[in-house]
Amino acid sequence: MSITEKATTVRPIGFIGKIKAHIEILDPVTWISVFPCLTGGAMASGAMQGNVHDYLLLFALFLIYGPLGTGFSQSVNDYFDLELDRISEPTRPIPSGRLTKQEALWNWSIVLAIAVLLGSWLSLHIGGQRGWIIALSLFTGLSLGYIYSAPPLKLKKNILLSAPAVGISYGVITWISANAFFSEIRPEALWMAGLNFFMATALIIMNDFKSQEGDAKGGMKSLAVMIGPKNTFLVAFTIVDLVFAVFAWLAWSWGFHLLMYFLLITLLVDIVIQVMLYRDPHKGLYFMQNAVDDGFGHTIGKSEIHEHNAFLRFQVVNNILFLVNQFIAAGLIGMKYMQ
């Protein structure tokens, strides 16, 4: 029996097992990645009220972009990457035999239908220009989620297309949608969406370290394949640093002077960490390894590849610093419009 046959030969798993497999293919761990931007966009509106109606709207927004939107993109990815997953991730629901390819097709088709129906209803509920913005954002996110993995475009094959697609999906439409749910689009929200776009782009560039070898064999044009790990670190770190620098300038221009000083301190901390990791991806920032393995490992993943492991350690520190600054900025922006 071949390795592939062993991977796809399993005992019947029953109804509960099928439900678990259907949830697993939606990759629940990835859902939380959109929540900070959704929360920030809502906070920056300065118009969300502490009543049941607005909290239900926010919950619906989390549902659309988390389990439905992000889940749809993950399910589509598993469906079209079956042959690759048989080699690299044979325990996933389809290659392990817990779901057939037809069942996976039904999975993402149903999730897509629910997302479209719920999103359409919410767009009509909000109405006007804001309703159109919400509808367009959702359509953009679902479209990118599909063509990211599906042929013939399959954006993930080229980092020059895949990274911007991820940045738009996770950083731009989430901020704008959440803002439009409760108010007219604040100019500051557009800037914050742009910052999140570039931050997400930088992180996805480094995330490709984990599949560098497979990408090279499969013809995938990740930046690590094209210019090597060292240069990839330089490109990604430069983008991250520019994000913090522009963020600091924006904070100053918005009158948030204390936040600007905090952002500059954050930038210096990030640069020190980056130098440590660039010099030695294996041991740099290694004191954060326990946080990756035991604390955030279930959320951000684990890796045996030195460069990718270094990225995970960096991600823990960088994401905390960026999110703290982002939430402070969102709160200050919201307070400005509450006056």
From TrEMBL:
Recorded GO MF terms: transferase activity, transferring alkyl or aryl (other than methyl) groups
A UniProt-annotated Pfam family: UbiA
Keyword Membrane assigned: yes
Key words, A-Z: Cell membrane, Membrane, Transmembrane, Transmembrane helix
Membrane-crossing residue ranges in chain numbering: 55-72, 105-124, 130-147, 159-178, 190-210, 231-252, 258-278, 316-338
Topology in membrane: Multi-pass membrane protein
Protein name as catalogued: Bacteriochlorophyll c synthase
Lineage: Bacteria, Pseudomonadati, Chlorobiota, Chlorobiia, Chlorobiales
